[in-house]
Structures are given as structure tokens and as C-alpha cells.
User: What shape does this take?
Amino acid sequence: MASVVAAAPVEQRGNLRGDRARSRRIVDKIATGALWSAAAFVVLLLAFFIVYLFVRGASVISWHFLTGFPSSSDAGGGIGPEIFNSFYILILTLIFTVPVALCAGMYLQEYAGPGRFRNFVQFSAESLATIPSIVMGLFGLLIFVQAFHWHYTALGGALTLTLLNLPAMMRVTQEALAAVPTTYREASVGLGATRWQSLVRVILPSAIGQLTTGVVLISGRIFGETAALIYTAGASVSFGKSAYDFNPFHTAETLAVHLYQTHREALVPDADAIGSGSALVLLVMVLIFNITARVVGRRLTIRFTGKA
Amino acid sequence: MVESQTSSHVGMTDKMKATDLNIYYGSFHAIRNAQLSIPERRVMALIGPSGCGKSTFLRSLNRMHDLTPGARVEGSVTLDGNDIYGEGVDPVTVRHRIGMVFQRPNPFPKSIYENVIYGPKIHGEKNAKKLAEIAEKSLRQAALWDEVKDRLTRSALDLSGGQQQRLCIARVLAVEPEVILMDEPASALDPIATSKIEDLIGVLKKDYTVCIVTHSMQQAARISDFTTFFLLGELIEVGTTSEIFTHPKDKRTEDYITGRYG
Assistant: This one.
């Protein structure tokens, strides 16, 4: 650097009030305001939604409402079996979904190198994920209800939901594994570990928090799913001795389906109240799932990796 | 062409030897026809500007490129005369005998103790007393024992960067390798932590063959017995460290050590 550029004389550079930057500052303020407003709008919308459902639904909630059988024509029906069925189908679905999706995700992320096979599986999974749930429900109707002659069953509903959620769970697995630093893999392999040993002892424990979060979030989705269940698990409950029917081959209307059904074709006079109560219970359950996802995910991460 | 540096040093055996080694990433030719002998129980430094292929070369010595999609290694690398790329060779066994310390300290997100015994455990050691002995011995060898003996169950991530790197060295020592490869092990550390690692390397060469990549010529001069200079994927010159730094044979080596390349 031979030549030195002379600094501008002091009077040309102005003062520190930054008069010349005024328009830039105004644009910056407008942008900040716009972004803040958009974020605030989203929060307000959610708050309004929750408050509205609470106001409408809270008066309906009672022990009898939460545990009793639904009524077909009289007022005062409950949603006991529906709550049970929602959890029952959720657990059945997770039992089918998680092991398969976990193994498929681990294979794709840790074993299959980049190439045609991985692209093909990825493409199939993405296509599967874009199928609308009602279409999946009709597929379930054709296969489980009609071809297998199961009629409307909890199992048929759970298997339909499994098909619906496998791609998402596989994706969650892949992302959780991809988030584990490569340096852990290198360190483990560099010490003479096999791929499987590295996966089980280092990579999975590091990914456990994110995996758990994924499972719980998908649980929330399964819990609220309606369209895929109307024609597979059915829109009525089995009236046995107890509200809790563990037979997977019995019809099993879930809370979300019940909510839909009461608004569409209920004969009971208090359909609106039942709808509001069901909606509130459903919302609270899904909120609990989301909060649990965060708390458990964080706890497990700290437990297995010692970092917050 | 490069002369074999070991022929002139009688009484030394070659622990490892790379012959006609070529490494590719896809179509990129990262290492061109490299020949190098690494003498037993000595420190070999690999120097050269960024991107010259020294790390690529180092990683081929314990088959770490197996993990990199698209990487291809041609030629031979021997350990005690046996080709580690030969047919029927198990890369897991290769890495058991040839350990590696990485540029950034990479302890597992586990306790200090669990980190050290990770290797012995995956190789089948189950006896708790034996594992405790291995842990203490390795941590002592890595000059870390006194600093961590009271908090072995604490997370390794709570240690300082320098301590983490010595823990990584202890973790490698615990599997009792014959060769230790180090990829710029001190580049992420402060000067005090660096000097501890350098002292440690001086001790380790009594029992182990060490091959270290460094971007610091002063470090190479301080710790190594032999130095290899790489430039643009080519192995330019090998010699004893004093020869390389005082009487380099190649003009390009001289330009580099006198600071004429970045």
C-alpha cells in the first residue's frame, strides 16, 4: 500500500447525530415494527382461540362428562370412551410407527450412502407424507375394513395412522441423527468402534432429546387426527360394561372424530355443549403433549449428554 | 522424487509406509502419488499450507476416509508390512491399532470416566476393576489425572479446551494403539494448553509412533524428529526436522519455511 487516501475534512463528515442516516433509521424502525406486529398477531390469535374454547367449554366439563358414555338421543352424554379410545389408538399407532420409522431413519442416515436407493426411499417417503389424510382413510377403508373384513376397528384405525405418520417419524429420526456432530462419529470410529456400536453408544444417546420431542409432537398430531379415522376406526363406540374397551377389533370413535360427528349429525339436544367440551379437552390434551415434548426432550438431553 | 529418509538412519524401523498413494474426492485429486515411511517410536510432522492435503494424507493412515462418501484411496499403506487397504482387512481392527486425535477436542457428551473407558469397553473389556485401572493409567499418561481424579463422574464437556484435548488423547491411549495420528491437535488451544500437549507428545514417542499434522512450523520444529512438506497435494520433501528447517533440498520447501507462502 504505497498511496494513503487522505481522510475527508472534518466539516464534511458531519456530526455524530447521524443526520444523513435518518432515512435508513426510519426504514429500520418500520421494519422492526412490522415484524413485531406479525409476531404479536400470531400470539393474539392463539390466545383468543384458547380463551374462546375455555369460555365455551369450561362449564360443560364435569366428572360425568369426562367418564360417562355418550348418549344417542338424550341430553347429558359423556365422552369417557372417546378419551380412552384416543389414547388407545395413539399407543397402538406409536407401537407400530416408532420402531419401523426409527430403524428406517437410522438406516438411511447412518448406513445408506448417498445414492439411488436412498433417493428412492426418500422420494417415496416424501410422496407418502403429502397424501391427504382423508385419502389415507379411504385406503384404510378399502384394506382393513373391507378387504380384511375387520369392519370399523381400533386396530384398523391405528394401522391407517401408522401409514400416515411413518414418513414424518422417519424424517424426525433422520434429522435428529443428522444433528449429532460428525466429530462424535469420527471419535468413536477412530477408537475402533463399529458403526453399530457408535450408533448405540454415542449417536442415539446424543439424539434422544430430539427423538423424544419428535415422538411427542407426532403424538399430538395422531391425537387430533380425524379424517383418517372416520372410515377406519368408526364414528361410534362399543357399548360394553366399561367405557374402556381394550379389544382392538372393536369400533373405537376417538375424541376428534366425536367432535366432528356431534356437530355434523348428532340428534342430542346438547350437541353444541358436548362439542365445546370435547374441543376443550382435545385442546388441553394437545397442549399437554407439546409442553411434555419440550420438558422431556430437554431432561433426556441433559441426562444423556450432560449439556443443557 | 522423494528419497527414503530412513535409509540414512540406521537402527530405525519403519512402522508405517505409504507407497504410490493417491487420494481422490470424487474427481478431485487430493494426494498425488505420495511415498512416505514413518519410523517407529518417533514423531513425524506433516506441514504445508492450508489445503495442501496433509490432513487428507493423515486420515488415509487409519482408513478414516471410509466414512467420507466419494473419497477414494489408491496405492498401499502398510502397518508393520501389512497393507491396511489389503483384501480381507477389517478397518475396525486397523483403527484399534492406529488411533487418532482430532483438530477440535471432541469428547463424547458423557462423563470423564466414561470417555476414557469407551474404547476398552467397545473392545469387550467388562471387568470394572480393570477398566478403572486402564482409566487411571491412561489419564496419568495424558498428564490429566491430577486435574480430574476428583471429578471423574462429571461431564467431559465441563473441562477446558486443553483438558478436553488431553482427555481425547487419554481416550486414544486407553485402547493401547501402536500409532497415534494427530490432526492439528493444538490449533484450537491457547499457548499454555498447547505447550502441555507438546510436552505430552515428547513423552508419548517413547512408547508410540506419532504422526502429527501441524500448521505451525515452530511446533513442528519443537516436537518432531522428522518433517514432511506437502504442497498442492504433492509430497515435496521428507527429512529429519533439522535438515528440513536448516538445509531444505527443494526450493519450494525453503520458500515455505522462510514464510514465502501463506
